[in-house]
Amino acid sequence: MEYAVAVNDLTVAYHKKPVLWDIDLEIPSGVLMAIVGPNGAGKSTLIKTMLNMIKPVTGETRFWGEVYEKQRKNIGYVPQRGSVDWDFPTNVLDVVTMGTYGELGWFKRPGKKEKEIAIRALEKVDMLPFADRQISQLSGGQQQRVFLARALVQNADIYFMDEPFQGVDAKTERAIISLLRELRSIGKTVVVVHHDLQTVEEYFDWVTLLNKVIIASGPVEKVFNEENLMKAYKSKVDKLFS
Amino acid sequence: MSLINIFSDYTLRTVALGSALLGAMSGVIGTYAVLRKQSLVGDAVSHAALPGIGIAFLLTGSKNIEWLLLGAFISGWLSIYIVNIIIKHSRVKYDSALGMMLSVFFGLGLVILTYIQKIPDSNQAGLEGFLFGQASTLLKRDVIVMSIVGGAIIIIVALLWKEFKLLSFDPEFCQVSGFPKEKLDLILTTLIVIAIVTGLQTVGVVLMSAMIIAPAVAARQWTDKLSVMVILSSVFGGLSGVIGTIISSSTRNLPTGPVIVVIISAISIISLFIAPGRGIIWRRMRDKKNKKRLNRNIILNNIYNLSTEGNGTQGYSLEDLSISKGDFNFPINTLEKELENLETLDLVKVKDKKWYITEKGINEIEDFRGGLGE
Amino acid sequence: MNVQIEIQLIAIVVALACSTLGVFLILRKMAMMADAIGHTILFGIVVAFFITHDLNSPLLVIGAALTGTLTVFLVESINKTKLVSEDSSIGLIFPLLFSIGVILISLYAGDVHLDTDSVLLGEIAFAPFNRFVVNGVDIGPSSLYVMGTILIINIIYVSLFYKELKISTFDPGLAMVLGISPGIMHYSLMTLVSLTAVGAFDAVGAILVVAFMVGPPTAAYLLTDDLKDMIFLSGIIGTISVILGYWTARIFDVAIAGMMAVMVGVVFLLIFFFAPDRGLLSIMRRKKRQKYDFAQISFLMHVINHEGAEDEREELGKNTIHEHLGWNKEFVKDIFNNLYSSNLVYIEDDIIKVTEKGRDLAISNAEEIVNGI
């Protein structure tokens, strides 16, 4: 099996305490994977460390065998919706166009071509009628769709999404999941920080259970079972030695 | 008299031009400080510039503005650098680090100024001018320096337009798009320090922060577009510079810096109230309108509910409607007035003192309920 | 009492009065609000002077102190509209009030015997000249009595409302549930902050009050986790800064209050670098060690995980273990030697084993990792 991502021996610490301990993780190409675990398990930290936003104490992440910088343009990212100020003076089309900035590089301005790419992405998430809308006037679900559209514009091979289902309406949730499935069907890999255990089996085909250490990682039907969930959510020391 | 002065009086023209440049420059760069929630950086940098001015004077022995501003730039920049080091490597919060560095650097500035005063024949008179600014001392060459600096700032902002926008809106995404956050942050901070330092001579270390914040706050209220905000902000800043200079030159003993600050603050506060769409007054009006629509729809909803429960086309008297829903009890005369309003909108009709909901009324209420469900 | 001691005593009382409240200011992330108040009291002093015509009137002190409260109120009113963020609201209000104060002084300079510089900068060297005379007997400098009274008020306030302040600072939600109004705590604290700033302005100047309010508590924050200790330590740090500042200023014959603020900065930086646990040096050392420490724990856990298993000889073999840990051989050797010399592991029949001490260490660390933070 070809691995899109291989994390090796990754340990992250804030101050004295490790937040992630000795993470070894392989994500095969073309899976739709959820990272689940209790609050404070280090889910967001894990993807941020993979994407070079946090410096680990030890370990490294490789994408198709190469370091992050080499593969940056093939990696898409959807941050948590709450991480930005939605009162920023800009509109929907402009935010989605930001997805092209990485490809454009320094100094170059987005032009007609980039606008068209953005419009197509907006169409995909059913947000085209909102293109000129000021972003503060969007509902939570609409904000999330805008972020997704921006990631689509990045045209990456692997997408990392931090809690895309957080605080969105049921309609948006269905729209997002069908979009993620579509991405998988065209061979993309999607990694989602997720916290709704109810929907893991329905939405995803691969899952990583995390609670500072990797509890289990693999196909949903194999590893998403009561035993592993107990380990992840009712943390006991002995699991480290199991 | 003063309006004529600005065209004929050479000194006044120079001062007004300088203040306008300063306002425009800090307006542009202040937009980013305000949007990135780093408004108070200006406060720290401007206070922290004081020791740099003193040290530059001590080292060069001249009051040559370029040297003094270079000193101010270095110490202003250093203070922010130290603040960043402190918050990066300890649990000290941003505002504590900022407040402490601001006052400590300012204290150092006072120490150095008193030291200079004690040096015989040091001709230090004028350094205190940096506390509250003394626009009247602006010379033509100062204005030339300011234009060059202002031009450079505008060129850099234009070149790095999309990078600065991305950094301000979503620093994480900026990072993953291949634009290092730290580097851009450093450039932006440096530009802020430059703009502040350039304005010290006019507005002074204590008040310069207002020139960074107020124009941008005012501009934000009038537009939802970053480009328009930057332009408006520099227009507001420039305008208050000119107006402030003229007013203060027309009255004896009126210090320029504080007058400029009062003007730009007034522009901001007025903008907060009257700006269309966002402004407080506008919002009040909209709330009132919404409340009106809500009132109307409550009554309409009432008839609708009664009609759907009953046999459809039945009409209801005022009394029926006024007692039907305890929660939204309108006095009879208000109810009648509202119903008449509804009638003019064709949402209800009246026959023999009985009120009926129309087809249009049903659509309206179903639409409204649908909207609530979203 | 000679003048030297009087000056230092006044400054120490100012420092104590400031740091007592400052601890709560920095924990509530209100340091910049203190800065704003430090500026706006100028406006209050000027307006109160127009009313009382007496710079030494207690009414002036109270009137000016209310401007601090007004500042907080205005900032919050603007912030509440959600049109402007909190930092911008602060940055909008205080320069405006301060400017109006400066303009009033400039316009009525003839009537107001008060200049902007002295409010802002202060000159503690002159503080002892203003004596407090009772029945013809000189009982000391009046600022000492003014600041002493304010210090006592602050101490009484903090000790009476210690619990309320603590809860409303760390958990405003809980405070509400317990019937403590965070709003009342907030405004009462801010009113005392401005009272202190007004009282101290002619001694150390308004901006240096900020140094005393923010600096020592921030330094103490790096030394302790205990709120009470933090208050005491801030007082000590403030006092040390005062004494150091006074004598340094004397040596170079420069502004005393300014030098005291500089010393606040110097003491802070010393603590920032050398604090035992949270200091930069100790953090750097820890970061360097951390990689090594974590590796040791990983090593121990690897041994515990595989001891007694079928593949024990392979996984824990003294010549093969590095392959299974995925580390380079030299590093593994280094780690092993270290653990061995600490008596945490031993070798039996070419297989690495863990001692009871090693097992305890690994398990207690693992416990911390999983349950920790």
UniProtKB/TrEMBL annotation, chain A:
One of its GO terms (molecular function) is ATP hydrolysis activity. Transmembrane segments: none annotated. SMART domains: AAA. PROSITE patterns: ABC_TRANSPORTER_1 (PS00211), ABC_TRANSPORTER_2 (PS50893). Residues 5-237 form the ABC transporter domain. Keywords: ATP-binding, Nucleotide-binding, Transport. InterPro entries: AAA+_ATPase, ABC_transporter-like_ATP-bd, ABC_transporter-like_CS, Metal_Ion_Import_ABC, P-loop_NTPase. It comes from the Bacteria. Belongs to the ABC transporter superfamily. This is Metal ABC transporter ATP-binding protein. It comes from Anaerosalibacter bizertensis.
Automatic annotation (TrEMBL), chain B:
Coiled coil: none annotated. The keyword Transport applies. The chain crosses the membrane at residues 12-34, 40-60, 67-87, 99-116, 143-161, 186-214, 226-247, 259-281. It is found in: Cell membrane. GO terms for biological process: cellular response to iron ion; response to zinc ion; transmembrane transport. Its main location: membrane. It comes from the Bacteria. GO terms for cellular component: ATP-binding cassette (ABC) transporter complex. It is a multi-pass membrane protein. The keyword Transmembrane applies. Keywords: Cell membrane, Membrane, Transmembrane, Transmembrane helix, Transport. Belongs to the ABC-3 integral membrane protein family. PANTHER family: ABC-TRANSPORTER METAL-BINDING PROTEIN (PTHR30477), METAL TRANSPORT SYSTEM MEMBRANE PROTEIN CT_069-RELATED (PTHR30477:SF3). This is Metal ABC transporter permease.
From TrEMBL, chain C:
It is a multi-pass membrane protein. Gene3D superfamilies: ABC transporter involved in vitamin B12 uptake, BtuC (1.10.3470.10). SUPFAM superfamilies: ABC transporter involved in vitamin B12 uptake, BtuC. GO terms for cellular component: ATP-binding cassette (ABC) transporter complex. Pfam families: ABC-3 (PF00950). One of its GO terms (biological process) is transmembrane transport. The chain crosses the membrane at residues 6-27, 34-53, 59-78, 90-110, 144-162, 174-197, 203-223, 230-249, 255-275. Keywords: Cell membrane, Membrane, Transmembrane, Transmembrane helix, Transport. It is found in: Cell membrane. Belongs to the ABC-3 integral membrane protein family. This is Metal ABC transporter permease.
